[in-house]
């Protein structure tokens, strides 16, 4: 079971930004690894989706996002079956969340927002499963154990799920104080939130590289 911060108590503009932050945590894992050539996806299209999603909301950015989604959906990936490896599974799930964000533009309620947020939490939980099931010790195992030991009253949590939830909670707290007109890319507070997600994303990349090197 994944644990998330529900978006119902956020203003609509901040719900959208909460979904962007959930996506942004997985931006590095998607772009750091080469995409399967048979998918026919240009990484620049994915990067444009992340960038436009984080831009101030409005008719212009919504149109740009829809155009990029339309471009993405012409890729052979969407007309074939795939048998992904571990890293590719994370890439595909994040691409699916980018598509869900596109639906959110037309239906800006809590259901689709929470689906994107749950997607991030679910991937973090799955990564914990892979680490726990590995025959090899994680290179940062001691640091992870120390981090979890410092979580007062939250026994039984696992590292990546906990880190994802911490970033998510920090984002929700900051968004509540963010002016409605402030975007994520064009405000200091917004850029700090994106940087927090990027820090987590770098950890995800390092662990996924380790998983691939150890045979996952």
UniProtKB/TrEMBL annotation:
Domain of life, source organism: Bacteria
Full protein name: Uncharacterized protein
């Amino acid at each position: 079971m994944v644990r998330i911060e529900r978006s119902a108590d956020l203003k609509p503009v901040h719900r959208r930004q909460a979904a962007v932050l959930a996506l942004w945590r997985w931006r590095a894992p998607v772009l750091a690894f080469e995409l399967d050539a048979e998918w026919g996806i240009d990484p620049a299209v994915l990067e444009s989706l992340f960038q436009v999603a984080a831009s101030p909301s409005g008719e212009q950015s919504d149109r740009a996002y829809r155009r990029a989604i339309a471009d993405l959906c012409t890729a052979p990936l969407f007309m074939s079956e795939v048998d992904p490896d571990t890293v590719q599974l994370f890439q595909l799930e994040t691409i699916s969340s980018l598509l869900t964000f596109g639906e959110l533009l037309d239906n800006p309620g809590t259901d689709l927002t929470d689906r994107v947020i749950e997607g991030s939490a679910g991937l973090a939980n799955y990564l914990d499963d892979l680490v726990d099931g590995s025959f090899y010790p994680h290179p940062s195992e001691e640091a992870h154990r120390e981090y979890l030991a410092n979580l007062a009253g939250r026994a039984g949590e696992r590292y990546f799920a906990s880190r994802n939830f911490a970033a998510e909670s920090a984002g929700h707290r900051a968004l509540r104080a963010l002016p409605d007109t402030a975007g994520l890319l064009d405000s200091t507070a917004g850029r700090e939130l994106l940087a927090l997600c990027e820090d987590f994303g770098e950890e995800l990349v390092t662990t996924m590289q380790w998983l691939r090197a150890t045979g996952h």
